[in-house]
Design brief:
Elements: E1 7-11, H1 22-33, H2 41-52, H3 58-66, H4 69-88, H5 98-107, E2 111-115, H6 120-130, E3 138-140, H7 153-161, E4 170-174, H8 177-186, E5 190-194, H9 201-206, E6 211-213, H10 219-224
Parallel strand pairs: 1-2, 1-4, 2-3, 4-5, 5-6
Helix pairs in contact: 1-2, 1-4, 3-4, 4-6
Protein name: Phosphonatase-like hydrolase
InterPro entries: HAD-like_hydrolase_sf (IPR050155), HAD-like_sf (IPR036412), HAD_sf (IPR023214), PhnX-like (IPR022468)
Pfam family, one: Hydrolase
Length: 225
């Protein structure tokens, strides 16, 4: 059966943007702000949760880890400040072929929406650092879509905002199991996992990947088939 994909929803960190451990470095700063000592059993437990939930809204992760809303907000603010410092220091780069893939998808008449688990301020910091302010038709963060991953809200908000007619015209691509869950729960026809980020093929397929690609650079060819 041929695909009629009109909307491509792409994750950022780990999918189109290199992570290179930035999330974990920023988490270290957030944990330290709350008095969690690096190398302690508590720190190790928290870091394991951060890795398992890559792709989820960061404030949701901190709410799970710290329980109290005040502590979660403090941790999230420390995380964002640390991440912004890393981006400002030049530790932010597009993954090879990502910009070209986005341009090719849009050149074929498809809408492209970039999504993230970060806040709008962090998302904008990354877009500005890469010169990507106009690279996509739309960019979305969890606060603009109701709920973040693994819920379908980001993909469905992208559908609504781009006036796409059907969920079967959506392709979702990401590097985490939570991206795959977002795509499957939204009813996307293509849910593509990429191996440039947090999770491996086993996790991606377990969470619903219809395809697993070496990188997002392979996505235009997949959708052209």
């Amino acid at each position: 059966m041929s695909l009629d994909i009109r909307l491509v929803v792409l994750d950022m960190a780990g999918t189109t943007v290199a992570d290179d451990g930035l999330v974990e470095q920023a988490f270290q700063a957030a944990a330290g702000r709350l008095g969690v000592e690096a190398g302690s059993p508590e720190h190790a437990r928290m870091l394991e949760h951060v890795r398992a939930t890559m792709g989820e809204s960061k404030i949701s992760v901190f709410r799970h880890l710290f329980g109290e809303e005040e502590k979660a907000q403090t941790a999230n603010a420390a995380f964002e400040a640390a991440y912004h410092d890393l981006v400002d220091a030049g530790h932010c780069a597009a993954l090879p072929g990502a910009a070209e893939a986005i341009a090719e998808l849009r050149g074929r008449g498809r809408k492209v929406v970039l999504t993230t688990g970060f806040s709008r301020s962090t998302q904008d910091r990354i877009l500005t650092a890469l010169g990507w302010e106009s690279i996509a038709d739309l960019t979305l963060c969890p606060a603009e879509a109701g709920r973040g991953r693994p819920y379908p809200d980001l993909a469905l908000t992208a559908l609504l905002r781009t006036s796409t007619e059907s969920v079967r015209q959506i392709a979702v691509a990401g590097d985490t199991g939570y991206d795959m869950l977002t795509g499957t729960r939204a009813g996307a026809a293509v849910v593509a996992g990429v191996l440039t980020g947090a999770h491996g093929e086993e996790r991606l397929r377990a969470d619903g990947a219809t395809h697993v690609l070496a990188s997002v650079a392979e996505l235009p060819a997949l959708l052209a088939g």
